[in-house]
Amino acid sequence: MKYVLRKFFWFFFALYIAVTINFILPRLMPGDPASVLVNKLQGVEEGSMEAIRAAFGIDTDKSILAQYGDYLINILKGDLGISISNYPYKVWDVLSKALPWTIGLMGIATLFSFIIGTFIGIVVAWKRKTKVANSVLGIFLFIRSFPYFWLGLILVYFFAFKKPLFPLGGAYSIGVFRGDGLPFIKSVIYHGILPGLTIAISSMGYWMLTIRNNMINVLAEDYIIVARAKGLPLTQIMNKYAARNAILPSVSGFAMALGFIIGGSLLTEMVFSYPGIGFMLYQAVQQQDYPLIQAIFLFIAIAVMTANFLSDIVIMLLDPRVRDGGKK
Amino acid sequence: MGDIILKLQNLEAGYIIKQGDIKAVDNVNFELKRGEFLGIAGESGCGKSTLAYTIMGLLEDNGRIFNGEILYQDKDLTSMTENELKAIRWQNISMVFQSAMNALNPVMKIGNQLIDTILSHKKDFTKRDAINKSKEMLKLVDITEDRMNAFPHQLSGGMKQRVMIAMAMILEPDIIIMDEPTTALDVVVQRTIIDKISDLRKQFNFSVIFITHDLSLLVEISDKLIIMYSGQIIESGLANKVYNNPLHPYTKGLMNSFPSLTGKLQDFGGIPGKPPNFLKLPGGCRFHTRCPMKQDICSKVAPPLQQINNDHTARCHFVKKGN
To answer: Which residues of B touch A226 (CB under 8 A)?
Structure first.
């Protein structure tokens, strides 16, 4: 319990630091948001200009501390400001359009990649002396060295362009709407297959190699020899003795990967024109939409920290040594 | 002490590596009687652990039995299939491993690790029977039954090794092989473990093959002693005979390498040099490169293991009968 409280404290502490850095960074960059806006809105009267500045929350006249105070209060209220490139929409509204796509696509792809990769890794390590296992290992090493956007381009070229089995891009077909129910869901899945495969295939090798290396280390441990000597069934040794110990580092890695999901997969989303966060961040940077960039960074930071926290909790549940805080 | 329960005949085993075959167990013969305590001593790398793993049928993938027989109650273990071996291993011959620290699965409660041992052998046991049996065994090694729910890291080194002894005894085997079971422990804990083993053996009448590099541990509790050097038995006999009247210069050297507690201080030189490389064994007697009594014949002719008197054999040119 003390462990959880301590982790909780560090979670909030790190969160606060992240929020603060997120406030400082844009203010260190050359060119301030106000001047961008002024350039964009040329020809607007001085009086209206003031009102617009106030509306966007760009009060460069205020002291930096006052700005910081406003910023913190706004974040607590969930007010992330107004998106410059999507005026007059609020940043939150813009973000909430992209978030489900990214979380859905990346989340499912990462989950599948982790489960399948880890499973293959366990078996490959267990049967490491067979030819089949070594060929599988070779194939994964080969796939892992592809750049993932390149894999995406190859998939698009062969399965969407040359042989139009799948759509070239987008998240769902034109003419299908959210309210349509089943046809909409079908269309979403259909559009998600290629980008999902790209992400899953390119990251699977990582999971597979991670668990394989850990497994091979664990298999050399004395308790594996004991388990064999005790005459336990091989599947029990593989699962309860070897994999159960080898999976601990993979689980932390997986939790971390879940955190990075929010950041989206910029290049994959660009290749498939998928309306996710990565694509949105790219557009926001191009249009110097500071409130949006800031909000995306904030979300990425929160997600990574939450994932980190969750990983600590899961490891605590899986590893009794961590539960006791390392004390004897 | 009863009938012969384990008999090794001309056993040759070792490993196949790129540079050649390593015969870490070279023509080893011995007999083990029911309830007997056999001590095997030798330096690191003399083949004593390989011998243990060979008897258990647990050699690594590059390990081989080149020749010979391991007769357990007249059945040859070397010619058995893995499944036949599985039925005997732990059920009839079990083992306590060297590293108490790593022999238990760190993410499983020790109770469950005892229970799974029982359940994988005794098909007629229910979970409840297995739990009761495990508690009973823990009690035998002075561990309270509430420790069933402890994880290995919550136990001390000595407790872990006692759990391993309980685990080795749980199926009531005839033979327990102990491969340096006390090496990682401090001397006080070593003592309690040795005493415990000694008590339990008297109580349950199982045989022990106790392997160690620490000869001083063995002399008090062993019935019989075997000294190994470079894969071969170089001296064997009743423990008190070997101890009081060591014949082989190597055994004498080993005896000299621990100080007496009560006698006056004297130089104890030990044995100079290192054990030979198995890939480049010296000709003649394998010990001649380090032997203080070396003569010309030693580098040319390999001495046989000679019966010196009833219960005492040695592999040296210069031991004579009735010595």
So the answer is: 97, 103-104, 164, 167
What pLDDT is attached to residue B292?
Answer: 84
CB contact under 8 A, A320 and B105: no
Task: Please tell me which residue of chain B has the smallest CA distance to A247.
Answer: B107
**Residue from the list A221, A231, A241 with its beta carbon closest to the beta carbon of B102:** A221
Please report, for the domain that includes residue B239, its CATH number: 3.40.50.300
Q: Which of A129, A226, A320 sits opposite B97 (nearest CB)?
A: A226
Nearest by CB to residue A241, choosing from B105, B117, B153, is B105
What distance in Å separates the CA atoms of residue A268 and residue A282, rounded to the nearest whole number?
Answer: 12
Nearest CA to CA, how far is A127 from chain B (Å)? 13
Q: What is the CATH code of the structural domain delimited by A91-323?
A: 1.10.3720.10
Containing domain of residue B43, as a range? 4-92+173-314
Q: What is the pLDDT of residue B61?
A: 84
Residue B116 lies in a domain: no
Residue A160 has pLDDT above 70, yes or no: yes
In sequence order, the β-bridge partners of residue B8 are B30, B70
- CB contact (8 A) between residue A240 and residue B108: yes
Name the DSSP class of B25.
E
Task: Name the 3-class secondary structure at B176.
Answer: strand
| pLDDT tens sequence across B186-219 | 888 888 888 889 889 988 999 999 998 888 888 8
Domains held by chain B: number:
1
Give the number of beta-carbon pairs within 8 Å between A and B: 73
ipTM strictly over 0.90?
no
Over residues A318-326, the mean pLDDT reads: 78
Kindly determine whether residue A230 and residue B120, on different chains, have CB atoms separated by under 8 Å. yes
Residue B164 domain-assigned (yes or no): no
User: What is the percent of chain B where pLDDT is above 90?
Assistant: 47
Tell me if chain B has a CB within 8 Å of the CB of A324.
Answer: yes
Residues of A in contact with B117 (CB under 8 A): 230-232
Would you call B58 and A228 a contact, using CB atoms and an 8 Å cutoff? yes
Nearest residue in A to B171, CA atom: A230
> Does A222 touch chain B if contact means CB atoms closer than 8 Å?
yes
Q: Do residue A230 and residue B102 have CB atoms under 8 angstroms apart?
A: no
Q: How is chain A split into domains, by residue range?
A: 2-77, 91-323
Examine the pLDDT at A328 and tell me if it is beyond 60. no
Residue B221 lies in a domain: yes
Residue to mutate among B56, B86, B116, B123, with most A CBs inside 10 A, is B116
